[in-house]
Amino acid sequence: YQTAPGRLQIDTLLLKLPVLGDVLRKSAVSRFTRTLGTLISSGVSILDGLEITARTAGNMVIHNAVMESRASIAGGETIAAPLAKSKVFPPMVISMISVGEQTGGMDEMLSKIADFYDDEVDAAVSALLSLMEPIMIVVLGVIVGGMVVAMYLPIFDMVNAVQ
Predict the structure, then answer these.
(1) Phi-psi bin for 104: left (phi > 0), alpha (psi -120 to 50), beta?
(2) Which domains does the chain have, with CATH numbers?
(3) N- to C-terminal Cα separation, the chain
(4) Which tens digits make up the pLDDT trace of 88-116?
(5) Angle between helices 20-41 and 60-74 (to 10 degrees)
(6) Rounded to whole angstroms, what are the CA distances from 55 to 10, 17, 112, 116?
(7) Which of 36, 81, 107, 148 lies most in the core, judged by the most C-beta atoms within 10 Å?
(8) pLDDT confidence tier of residue 146, bands split at 50, 70 and 90
(9) Which spans in 42-59 are helix H?
(10) What pLDDT is recorded for position 56?
(11) What's the rounded Cα separation, in Å, for the pair 57 and 83?
């Protein structure tokens, strides 16, 4: 995680993980849309907002996708088209950003996306935690059972040695 290529590889692998990758992607999308929506609503230009948002992404894959889309937008493209090309963002996000662009309510649309993905992240984390509870109980049972066996085996060995 010390070098940029290493960070990119690790972040790519993290996003491909079955359960955790989905949570990380939704969290990053939520952070991206919330930050960009707040910046746009406070009067920051879209190009500056994308640059700031890319730095807050917390994931090199998403950072690179946002910076590539920023370069395309500076060249005159819409916001949704380069984000769709990156294939990092879900289709629903791209569609809602496109609608926000066409209607002129980009900041409101980004806030709605962020609210939706915040709820999705909360639900996914709750499901993940409820899955972990039985696993933790089994692990603790094995640890306690191992300690009990480790304490009683020498006692049984001494009893057998006395006989």
Answers:
(1) left
(2) 4-128 (1.20.81.30)
(3) 60
(4) 899 999 999 999 989 988 889 999 999 99
(5) 40
(6) 17, 23, 22, 22
(7) 36
(8) very high
(9) 46-55
(10) 87
(11) 14
